[in-house]
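ok trying again, last paste got cut off:
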Amino acid sequence: MATSSAERGEIRVILAAYLDGQPYDGLAYYLMEKSNLPGPRMNLGLANNFADAVGELVSEPQTRVERLEMLLDTWARLPVDQAPVNHPRVILPCVAVLSYGQAAVSRPEWWDDEIAKLERAATDPRWRVREMVAAALQRMLAADWTRTCGALMSWIACGEPLRIRAAVAAVAEPGLLADKQRAEDALAVQAEAVNQFIHFSPEQRRDENVRALRQALGYTLSVVTAASPETGFHLMEELAALPDPDIVWIVRENMKKKRLEPWQDRLTTLETALFRPEQADAQDDE
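nice, full thing came through this time. structure:
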């Protein structure tokens, strides 16, 4: 198996040939052959090496960036019928989307264009592509936390569930949350996302995209709470008391995560605070 640096070097050679005018077929075949698809786990190391290679190339003045941009945009727009979620060809939109994040990091003057492309990709029907959106955003958060976090709050405000899902997943990365202010910012993202979820009607909550958001909130809140336990548990306690079965489910799912085990006293408090249907019945009888 090639090492990360060796594989990135191979990708650079094939990318350079494409940039010199050769068709992209060889590059696409290389990626599909090494994609590990069909299968349960796409080759994420390959995707990361591709994005890293793109980041290096766009930083070099001799690179024909227009041709590279055309390649990424073509792959990112591949429809589901041409690149199904478990087909090797889905590696192409996945690496393109991840590369948008690295391009924004390597060329900050492209930031607005790349974040707009990621916002569109966040609603892709393929979950593998959506995961790459979150990973791309994490690269951007690592490079410019304040700017990227501000953009994610605007995604949440739009009320579109898959964009909200991308935002909560992006900030739920322990490696990004060592700084206290970042952890607090990430909690604000989670809180705003939950607030948006609360306003979805029962009928809306049956929608597949809203259910994907619910599923994500079932783990992201605990990741951020572990980074800022005082504020995080306070938010979870507020949510636990709400007479909303979906919110109670979200809190319960987060309570199950091993990352919260060091705070047994707070988990006990949460368990006590959880709203139960019989409480509503008792209130109705009063």
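cool. The chain has two domains: 1-143, 173-274. Confidence is low (pLDDT under 50) at residues 281-286.
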